[in-house]
Amino acid sequence: MKFTTVLVSLLAAHVQAGVVSLEAECGDLQVMSHDSLPANVDPSQVRKCKEHPLRLSPNVKGHQLSGTAEDGSALERRDCWYGNPFGCSDGYCWKTCLGDGRWCWTAWDNGFGNWQTCAADGECDPKEHPNANCGEGDGCDSCGCSC
Fold first, then answer.
1. Could you tell me the keywords of this UniProt record (predicted)?
2. Are residues 24 and 86 in the same domain?
């Protein structure tokens, strides 16, 4: 019985340390959480951190922020984009939405996985990577399509 108690205590401490280290790893990007996932999303592929690494400068091709959103969300501060339908900016892929200037950062596993990284625009072609889609996540300011 004592062995079981010690084993459970050690396991609980290990799990708690994992949560603390994940919070430290994500920092301002916050830990990704989800209540439910679509059937086409592999739970083991969900990214660790919720927000996009470039959320503090969320504009394609180096465009400057157009102002501060009332609620401070990066999603509302994006400039609209009317150029190429997809591309690579600062090592991350993005794509346009609906042709009306809105765009999004893309993530693997239908938007719930790691953010799609790149070295050149061609690596972000949605036709070549149908499993990458606009970032998704509960309460994620840098997810979804907007400008």
1. Signal
2. no
Domain span at 97? 50-63+70-147
Residue 37 domain flag: no
Question: How far apart are the C-alpha atoms of 82 and 124, rounded to whole Å?
Answer: 17
**pLDDT tens track, the chain, 147 positions:** 443 333 333 333 343 444 468 889 999 889 988 778 888 899 999 999 999 998 755 455 544 333 334 444 444 457 898 999 999 999 999 999 988 999 999 999 999 999 999 999 999 999 999 999 999 998 898 899 988
Q: Are residues 78 and 131 in the same domain?
A: yes
Q: Is residue 28 part of a domain?
A: yes
Encode 136-145: b = buried (16+ Cβ within 10 Å), e = exposed.
Answer: bbeebbbbbb
Question: How many other C-beta atoms can be found within 10 angstroms of the C-beta atom of residue 131?
Answer: 17
- Note whether residue 41 is domain-resident: no
At residue 56, the 3 state secondary structure works out as coil
The pTM of this model reads: 0.73
- What are the tokens at 136? 């998704």
